Amino acid sequence: MNYIKAFAPATVANVACGFDIFGFALDEPGDIVELRKRDEPGIIIKDIIGDEGRLPREPERNAVSVVMLKFLEHIGSTQGVEVTLHKNMPLGSGMGSSSASSVVGIFAINELLGRPLTQRELLPFAMEGERIACGAAHADNVGPSLLGGFVVIRSYSPLDVFKVKVPDELYCTLVHPDVEVNTKDARYILRNEVSLKNTISQMGNVAGLIAGLMQEDYDLVSRSMVDVIIEPVRSILIPEFDHVKQAALDSGALGCSISGAGPSMFALSRGRDTAERVAKTMSEAFGSVGITTKSYVSQINQQGPKVLETA
Amino acid sequence: MNYIKAFAPATVANVACGFDIFGFALDEPGDIVELRKRDEPGIIIKDIIGDEGRLPREPERNAVSVVMLKFLEHIGSTQGVEVTLHKNMPLGSGMGSSSASSVVGIFAINELLGRPLTQRELLPFAMEGERIACGAAHADNVGPSLLGGFVVIRSYSPLDVFKVKVPDELYCTLVHPDVEVNTKDARYILRNEVSLKNTISQMGNVAGLIAGLMQEDYDLVSRSMVDVIIEPVRSILIPEFDHVKQAALDSGALGCSISGAGPSMFALSRGRDTAERVAKTMSEAFGSVGITTKSYVSQINQQGPKVLETA
């Protein structure tokens, strides 16, 4: 194989109650990378399309390529690669944009070189890309983007990640308002201490969401999509948050919260029709104050990254 | 029916990571109550056996009978009842002693009067008994004692309780050392604030324990039986805690922690043989410093309270 074109999905992290531990993958949008082997060693970023020139072109500073550098060093390869990245989602959007780049990069190079590592073994590399992009090696976006499905990060040290089965009729509505929140800022405003009372509430909702998903109990999923710790703080960074959330719930969503660090918001619904209706009313709610949006409706993507083309 | 004799099981609350939200029921020990209808109104405690005279004999101050007073008031009955309570577990033991009394009391009176309320409707009454006995209306012991199985209290306000399926081969070892911890003290020493980092760790373990139980993944159950919030504080009240816990793990237990507020300790194991071996080594570890113990090995009791005899 001399050429590969691959895709990795956007993701919703936190999922209301599961700050830093829950995330799931979407069918769309997602980043696409094209890799072509070079005769000389070294990684070159040939082009990045769709980032409005905002991402670094130096291989060691871009999430898509830094993971490849680490990977090549790990397997002791001097293979040279030319990279073209198609950014299909906005930066700093709360949709796991940098994670999709890290994952598509590490997935594609592993495939291009004959799959020396398993998918799970790629996770620490993808997390390293996340560290370059946002300062901390979180796994709640790269985990689901790489592994597909609904992913739980039980522990970071040692890294312990598992998947949870979700109901077939579960659909996600993701709405991106055209305002930007810096992930580092969104983390900065969080308090370092949580009341024991709120910790207990959040634990109850975490248990309820996992059990609700696994038991296909949509009502329990709905009751458990409550975040008493992060959402009350971060939602102040998102204009019209309360209004948009209420619109989603009024349209039949099981629950609605911030996607990752925001400003994107997500809702879960039973059935595609409801999820489409929720997308419409959430977008209208943002639109009522003049904020334009882009929305996506998708099942939970069970596959993760995929090969689109090889040569 | 003029007479009923009923049983309600001891319970393990908290279950390592699930402070105030997790609990499960045991096959033994458990409290037994005998109720006999009286011709005159009013509740009389005729006898309490096994409490060494330490429990109050006034009906409005004892967990077993205060729940009956609330129940009779609720259904508008003036039925008189004579109560005999057999306490089959030590007080302040962390085995849900007061909860077993509340549950057996409310269960028995409901049966005696022709079951005017469903089992679930009895829960708030049993919680009221818990308030009398230990100052707060917790549900992590009365919930499993009344409903059987592994119970999650997702929320206290509104009360939202659900059950989680557990693997068939899951066995509990419960070891009661002959030292006493007052539940009010055990709660008093807890900090009111938790670091966000520890909250995230605990949430990961809560998710892991629920998924591990439901997926019958014993290894995930084992990895998730970690409590970074409560156990480090409360374990200092239990002599030889670290030593006893290590003995349990060395003997093959999946995990080991404090049962409720202690001083009893519990372990979960795969299979009865392992659970029996764990009971032996935990008891020996307490015994090495001259502390006598009583131990119980049991599957998770799925039934909750039961009628033993009627007339």
UniProtKB/TrEMBL annotation, chains A, B:
Native organism is Runella rosea
NCBIfam families attached here?
Answer: PRK01212.1-4, thrB
Q: Which GO terms describe its molecular function?
A: ATP binding; homoserine kinase activity
Enzymatic class: transferase
What GO terms in the biological process aspect are recorded for it?
threonine biosynthetic process
Give the protein family.
Belongs to the GHMP kinase family. Homoserine kinase subfamily.
> What role does this protein play?
Catalyzes the ATP-dependent phosphorylation of L-homoserine to L-homoserine phosphate.
Q: What pathway does this protein act in?
A: Amino-acid biosynthesis; L-threonine biosynthesis; L-threonine from L-aspartate: step 4/5
Listed binding positions for ATP are P90, L91, G92, S93, G94, M95, G96, S97, S98, S99, A100
Task: Kindly state which keywords UniProt assigns to this record, in alphabetical order.
Answer: Amino-acid biosynthesis, ATP-binding, Cytoplasm, Kinase, Nucleotide-binding, Threonine biosynthesis, Transferase
Segments forming domain GHMP kinase N-terminal: 66-149
GO cellular component terms, alphabetically, are: cytoplasm
Catalytic activity, as annotated: L-homoserine + ATP = O-phospho-L-homoserine + ADP + H(+)
Question: Gene3D superfamilies, alphabetically?
Answer: 3.30.230.10, GHMP kinase, C-terminal domain
Q: Which InterPro entries match?
A: GHMP_kinase_C_dom, GHMP_kinase_C_sf, GHMP_kinase_N_dom, GHMP_knse_ATP-bd_CS, Homoserine_kinase, Ribosomal_Su5_D2-typ_SF, Ribsml_uS5_D2-typ_fold_subgr
Q: EC no.?
A: 2.7.1.39
Which Pfam families does this chain map to? GHMP_kinases_C, GHMP_kinases_N
* Xref: PANTHER family: HOMOSERINE KINASE, HOMOSERINE/4-DIPHOSPHOCYTIDYL-2-C-METHYL-D-ERYTHRITOL KINASE
Q: What is this protein called?
A: Homoserine kinase
